[in-house]
Structure to design on (188 residues):
């Protein structure tokens, strides 16, 4: 198997099995009810678990307790959110809003996409609807400012399906090439 090392040199290594999948993504929330409303009532991810759990000092702060909410996707992956009941620790531990391009992307079908778009608009959320030429995406910020993308991919348009060797494209980009190798985007 050819791979690219940190020096971008191809070498043959043993074939590694990729992880089974993504188990969960974990974020912070400042307001559990606003978080629950967005993910459960707007997006359609059910709240499947809620833990009140101790966090050890080894996590960078004094020992404390957190609320930990889990929302489940159809494939078994989860979005998780933590909240510190101690206001000082919450303020210290929770970061600021991420730059605009930092986001999570959830795969949806056309019916889900339309429903989320309708509920987000009715709920007063600002939405951006983009046709990437390789799928359609809806972008919405959650109540804590996390950008969430809802993507309806084209059946033949995944990152592996573009006929572009990813290692060659990476080398070309690092050498200064800035010519797009994806279809043009259209904002709605």
């Amino acid at each position: 198997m050819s791979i690219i090392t940190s020096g971008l040199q191809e070498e043959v290594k043993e074939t590694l099995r990729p992880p089974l999948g993504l188990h969960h993504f974990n974020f912070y929330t400042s307001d559990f009810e606003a978080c629950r409303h967005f993910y459960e009532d707007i997006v359609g991810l059910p709240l499947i678990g809620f833990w009140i759990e101790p966090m050890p000092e080894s996590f960078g702060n004094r020992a404390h307790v957190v609320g930990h909410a889990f929302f489940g996707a159809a494939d078994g992956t989860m979005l998780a959110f933590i909240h510190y009941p101690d206001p000082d620790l919450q303020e210290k531990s929770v970061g600021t809003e991420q730059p605009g391009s930092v986001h999570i992307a959830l795969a949806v079908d056309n019916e889900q996409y339309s429903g989320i778009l309708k509920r987000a608009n009715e709920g007063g959320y600002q939405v951006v609807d983009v046709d990437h030429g390789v799928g359609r995406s809806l972008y919405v910020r959650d109540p804590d400012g996390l950008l969430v993308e809802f993507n309806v991919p084209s059946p033949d348009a995944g990152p592996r399906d573009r006929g572009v060797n990813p290692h060659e494209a990476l080398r070309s980009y690092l050498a200064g090439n800035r010519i797009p190798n994806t279809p043009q985007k259209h904002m709605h």
